[in-house]
From TrEMBL:
Residues 62-289 form the PARP catalytic domain. Pfam families: PARP, RST. It comes from Carya illinoinensis. This is PARP. Its main location: nucleus. Keywords: Developmental protein, Nucleus, Stress response. GO terms for molecular function: NAD+ poly-ADP-ribosyltransferase activity. Residues 1-11 have a biased composition (Basic and acidic residues). Transmembrane segments: none annotated. Residues 1-68 are annotated as: Disordered.
Length: 359
């Protein structure tokens, strides 16, 4: 993310979970870098590595270690990744960042990779590819494929990695958001870790899967939905702007989810208590402006056609066709940082004068 040219203490524009915000830092903090990593680097880097090597997983750069130690988990049919391997490090880093952001100490004991061996394994891999390509066509080139976590007992994890989701995958969730498989975004492993079960060796296990989300719709607690509400949608989330749950309907659970990694780890027994603590970054502490308010303010300074272009980019973001960061960069290019900073400061000033934050 670019810094605005100027003095060291000049405001910097950045995307927040809610809209635009400014900070007075001259460089990204470690936490902000980690958040960006969660949005792009893990998904892109790991996905690129996997995609390039899907056809022959046995030839991948990931290596199989020697004979496992007594405490190391063994998963039949899965390939153990060696520490220091590029993919191992990417997955481990993403896992640890998700816990560290909440102050939870979780230690990775090992990572295994699904080899998709045998005729049926290759069939599942090819099925996912076919549905991914179909979703790309349906959604205009963006299938919205994400990495996501799923927690369960070791036995269930093994069954899912080998055979796909079945009744165990559905019954694992609480059914509050309808009938389907509930996964958590790659930046939030804790949500799924709460469903993991400590095995006889004191380890918990999470699946890291690639998930075809397509266009997601919002579902609320108490929903009895078990398939997309219309042809327009493909999956669901509990929150459109900051989802904590991806819901893949039972009708799609073995075509839209590809289990790729099993992460074995140790963590505190009271994980559910940490999950109830809101993330510090969920509410911006720097001045920020919701996108609709920003666009309304820009309409007072920019020609109608220009505002219309910005509105179209905003709609594209809401439809998940472009990322939040892409939207921010587009608005900065069109409106200019000077005008945006003035609007943000004006909005902040009105917030201080009005309890509701609205003029």
């Amino acid at each position: 993310m670019e810094n605005i040219n100027g003095d060291r203490d000049q405001c910097r524009l950045a995307p927040s979970p809610h809209g635009f915000q400014t900070t007075t830092s001259n460089s990204l903090s470690e936490q902000e870098s980690d958040e960006q990593f969660g949005q792009t680097s893990v998904e892109d880097s790991v996905s690129d590595t996997i995609t390039d090597q899907e056809a022959s997983v046995s030839d991948c750069e990931s290596s199989v270690s020697g004979s496992p130690s007594d405490h190391f988990p063994v998963f039949e049919g899965l390939v153990r990744l060696a520490e220091g391997d590029r993919v191992y490090d990417l997955v481990k880093r993403r896992f640890e960042l998700g816990f560290a952001s909440l102050g939870v100490q979780a230690t990775v004991a090992g990572i295994h990779r699904n080899g998709f061996g045998g005729v049926m394994g290759q069939a599942r891999l090819n099925t996912f590819r076919i549905y991914g390509q179909a979703m790309e066509k349906k959604c205009g080139g963006n299938a919205n494929i994400r990495y996501a976590w799923y927690g369960a007992s070791k036995d269930d994890i093994v069954k899912i990695a080998s055979h796909g989701f079945g009744h165990c995958g559905i019954s694992q969730n609480n059914g509050l958001f309808g009938g389907g498989v509930y996964l958590s975004p790659d930046y939030s492993p804790l949500e799924s870790a709460c469903n993991s079960v400590v095995d006889k060796d004191g380890l918990r296990h999470l699946l890291l899967s690639r998930v075809i989300l397509g266009k997601a719709e919002l579902v609320h607690i108490g929903s009895e939905q078990c398939h997309p509400s219309s042809e327009e949608f493909d999956s669901a989330v509990d929150n459109l702007s900051a989802p904590r749950k991806y819901i893949v309907w039972s009708t799609h659970m073995n075509t839209h989810i590809l289990p790729e990694f099993v992460v074995s780890f140790t963590a505190p027994s009271c994980l559910a208590e940490f999950a109830r603590i809101p993330k510090p970054s969920s509410v911006p502490t720097s001045p920020w402006v919701p996108f609709p308010v920003l666009i309304s303010a820009l309409s007072k300074f920019l020609p109608p056609h220009t505002v219309s272009v910005i509105s179209k980019y905003h709609e594209a973001h809401k439809e998940k066709k472009i990322s939040r960061n892409e939207l921010v960069q587009k608005i900065r290019q069109i409106a200019g940082d000077k005008l945006l900073i003035a609007i943000i400061k004006s909005f902040k000033s009105k917030q201080l004068k009005t309890p509701t934050g609205l003029a």
